[in-house]
Design a protein that fits this description.
- The structure is a single chain.
- It is built from nine helices and seven strands; from the N terminus they run βαβαβαβαβαβαααβα.
- The chain has one domain: Rossmann fold, CATH 3.40.50.720.
- Strands 3-2-1-4-5-6-7 form a seven-stranded parallel beta sheet, sandwiched between helices.
- With 271 residues, it is an alpha/beta fold.
- Helix 1 packs across helix 8, helix 3 packs parallel to helix 4 and helix 4 packs parallel to helix 5.
């Protein structure tokens, strides 16, 4: 029987890394995307050419009520019931509490929380009916644990998702369905070529940021994908309701605010 994994928001960045990793682990992949059609097509082609797995792409606007659940149910009908759901589609919006708008609050709650909840419900319902002991993995953020300026809404929504995932883990444990979260830190999801097009962000942004992280670098989509693959596997069969932070130690001491601070330099000075 083929293993099927659903990944939301997988045309680029973290979602793309997760889809590629799970395909290499032997899962057929169904993923959603919204606007990056060419990148979605390239991902599908790469999965099909480098693995023996099936891959299907679905254009879905997760901001619309019911769209996520409809997508999960459509995949279940067309490809089969998934044994893995990775909720990754979302948006990062940073605004001071002084500039916060109802539109921002509604968008982040709908996309980064409400959509996750109903995708979980749809996938879990399909798994229960098919008697599949599956795995649901929600991509959250270290901002759910550590407060930063301008992330009252985004960080608050991610904290709510962490807490909701724990209750979902209790609800679904009797069916053998596990629910966990992966919380990325600073992940380099944009290439230097892309940053070069943006006048407001330096091309060496991720390199410079990495010097302020204890392990000495920014994270990659592959780092998150490896954590997801582990939680989806039988090796994690006794893990549920957990939040796996993947951030290179970023929030252990709190991100140093002084630009140019180097953990490596601090280590040498203390030796």
């Amino acid at each position: 029987m083929n293993k099927i994994a659903i990944v939301t928001g997988a045309s680029q960045g973290i979602g793309r890394g997760i889809a590629l990793k799970l395909a290499k682990e032997g899962y057929d992949i169904a993923f959603s995307f919204f606007s990056a059609t060419q990148r979605a097509e390239e991902l599908c082609a790469e999965i099909q050419s480098t693995t023996a797995q099936r891959c299907a792409m679905y254009c879905v606007d997760m901001r619309k009520d019911g769209a996520g659940a409809k997508f999960v149910n459509q995949v279940s009908e067309e490809m089969g019931v998934p044994c893995v759901l990775v909720n990754n589609a979302g948006r990062t919006r940073m605004e001071s509490i002084l500039d916060m708008t109802p539109e921002t609050v509604d968008e982040l709650i709908n996309l980064d929380l409400k959509n996750y909840l109903f995708c979980m419900q749809a996938a879990a319902t399909q798994m229960v009916r098919a008697k599949i002991s599956g795995s649901i993995i929600n991509i959250t953020s270290t901002r759910a644990e550590r407060a930063y300026p301008c992330d009252a809404v985004y960080g608050g929504v991610k904290a709510a998702l962490n807490r909701a995932s724990q209750s979902a883990a209790l609800d679904l444990a009797p069916y053998g369905i596990r629910v966990n979260c992966v919380a990325p830190g600073a992940i380099a999801v944009r290439s230097k070529e892309y940053l070069q097009k943006l006048s407001t962000i330096p091309v060496d942004f991720w390199d410079e940021l990495g010097t302020r992280i204890p392990l000495g670098r920014s994270g990659t989509p592959e780092d998150i994908a490896n954590a997801v693959a582990f939680l989806a596997s039988d090796q994690a069969s006794y893990i549920t309701g957990e939040i796996l932070r993947v951030d290179g130690g970023l929030i252990l001491p709190g991100m140093p605010e002084q630009r140019g601070h180097s953990w490596g330099a601090t280590k040498k000075e203390n030796q």
